[in-house]
Amino acid sequence: MSDNNAVESTQNWRGLRGLISGGTETVGILFAFYIVLVVAFSVLSPYFLTFNNISNIVANMAFIGIMAAALTPLIIAGGLDLSSPAIAGLSGVVLGMLVAHGLDIWVAAGLALVVGSAIGFVNGLIIEKIGVNPFIATLGMLSIVEGGALVLTGGLTRPLIDPVFNMLGSGRVMGFPIIALFMIAVFVIVGYVMTQTRSGRYIFACGGNPEAAEIAGVPVERLRIALYTFSGFCGALAGLLLAARLGATAPTAASASLLTVIAAVILGGTSLLGGRGFILGTLIAVMILGTLNNALVILGVSSFWQKVTHGVVLLLAVGIDQIREKRRRT
Amino acid sequence: MTEPAPNPASARLVISGLEKSFGTNTVLKGIEAEFGSGEITALLGANGAGKSTLIKILCGVYSADAGTMVLDGDPINFTSPMEAMASGVRLLPQEISIVAELSVAENVLLGDLPVNGSGFAARLDRGEMRRRTESLLERVGLDVRPDIQVRDLSLQQMRLVEIARALAGNARLLIMDEPTASMSDAEKEELFGNLRRLRDAGTSIIFISHYLDEVLAISDRIHVLKDGRISGTFEPKTTTEADILVAMLGRQFDELFPPVARAAQDAPETLRLDGVSLQKGMQDIDLVVRAGETVGMFGMLGSGVENFGHALFAKESRIAGGRAIFEGAPMPNSAAGRISAGIGYLPAERKRDAIVPQMSISENIALPRLELFSRAGKLNKRRMHHTSAEKSQLLSVRCQSVFQPIGELSGGNQQKACLSRWIDDRLKLLVLEEPTRGVDMGAREEIYKKIRVLTDQGVAVLLISSDVDEIAGCSARVNVVRDRRIVGEFTSGASPEDLMAAAASSERGRHVG
Predict the structure, then answer these.
(1) Which one of A99, B6, B221, B280 is least enclosed by Cβ atoms within 10 Å?
(2) Is B322 in contact with B485 (CB distance < 8 Å)?
(3) Between B353, B370, B386, which is nearest A201 by CB?
(4) What CATH number did the domain enclosing A63 receive?
(5) Across A145-297, where does the E strand assignment appear?
(6) What is the pTM of this model?
(7) Eight-class DSSP state of B149
(8) What is the ipTM for the molecules in this complex?
């Protein structure tokens, strides 16, 4: 009786739907919320809605965005990584030390990326081969990496001055921050892989039902290890860009951003249980959190309130999503 | 206690004009039904008939759009499962839901643990727990100590614990969804005895099953659902399976099993097992499946046959000895290797091993063969959706579209979708494990037809099932398994009774919980 429905729908199918992988509604609501924030703040302050300010927000959030972009597919695939902000700190330290020993800064940056990826790879091995719970494994790794960075530096922040390298953090191309271009590049790559490739479908399958995915021939372990490695790589990349932006390397430079990174992924509609999530949601969530920070500063609200607002927004967003989900089911 | 009811056979639950829609999809179109008190009423219906929606409304999971429900004279409109339970309506779901870390007694009495004292100072009354659990276990016929952990029980024993838990709540109306799934005949009989005793003590039972013989044996009244309406109400004494099937399917139901396909003597051997032994499983398996035939494997639960398919075809093959030969070469060990060689595997545990519930039907169908739709990793989704839609139609999977999450489909449609994923011209060997467990009659018939079509096209089919009628009806040859070994091979003339006798007559005697 419904014999023709399936094929008809196939023909009605449009590419756009695939790009956001069925998350139209979640992403739409997030975006609407973002617009409301922007409108509200531009009414409250004349300084808010200027090109300069908006590009500042993006530049300030870029290193968080890069880590969140890598964390999104990992959580969808049923993993978790708490260690990437610690890796970011370490990669800055590695960069600073190698440069101090006379190594070329670009070679040093490349080595820092290798170190970050290697740590991510080890995370993957511990979790997938030994079977340690990802929360525990990466919490342990966080502590080791952060501690290691402190040991290497004695806890000191060191200046990192290299005009060209620092451009990566604070330079602009046609008015647009270079650091933001890095973030956008990472989002585009992750978005492409998640929505347009075979590996993308594998990511969702392995989070949705690892057992069934494995039986269907999906290389579950290898895929997750690759995602942990990528998360480590992005942690290191974020750390390098942050060092370039700050003009300094500090062992715990990015540690405080851990909760923001996770909040962005969850706020963006990714399920902590795996199997469900949207990269575009993560990007908008990063912008929402950045906008809140920025607006509170402009409005002269104490920065301590930033943490409180992050928490409120996260709980509101996830709560509303749950209520909608329940309604949809009954 | 008020005065006795004027009519002992009065209705416990009266449903009238019940309607329910999901979006534009009207699932229930005005249900009119009565469920007597002290009566076992069967609820039958093909997949998508509205059975599970109706049950979920009864249990307070969904609320109805229109219509009334009256329980013992009081209008009810449950807004949560808790309310339904408090009113004595209990669902015993098909999927085992048990806390493996707790003891049998704790599981049985979970909703109402007996305590001494009150408030925070209340201590568990272990003696009372033991007494109550023992009496409940006796009622379900489970002979285990109340203090052992549930994780140490077999799957069947867990089912009995679950039934005991449902009995522990003072249910007026017990809804049992396929309570006999994976039970032996002896245990079924025992369970039916318990259900009759419960009924005679005044409990109403709604019994849901796909097995008509069971339904006819146990129920006092049979409601058949079709397309969101009650299409017929029957009394088992005065009805036949054929009448019920007509009400379920809306047509004459003649032949469930198509004629058995027989391979030519010289047909190539697609799969050959030479003395294969599995880790912690069956030993010394010799087996040949030729192109174009269906070979059955049958054994009782506990014989080892239940782990055979999973051990050999699910993930890394767990072969401890012997050789598995596929088309003249060693069978690939990995899932990916077997799939690309043309081996399809339909696991028995569909929810655990086959589907990714959040993903679309299309993606689920395409999952094992995604490389066919990708070039350099880039996925051609349009082609994937098209192919999946075509495949799903081969088995007439009923869905809104192939973009619907597969988790929203009924069991039978999920199963048809899972089977359809393997159907393409690369398929050489199809391993089916319990292909029709939890699947309604209509879908069963389609699955059997499809198996026949595949063998005609030269596919070799290995059918592993505990449904003896299915094995006898589909297989050219049947290997009977007992005590982890193949104890005999039967040709297609063998009756279900012969097969059952061969599988059940263990020298040591069958252990029954």
Answers:
(1) B6
(2) no
(3) B370
(4) 1.10.3470
(5) 158-159, 172-173, 176-177, 248-249
(6) 0.74
(7) B
(8) 0.79
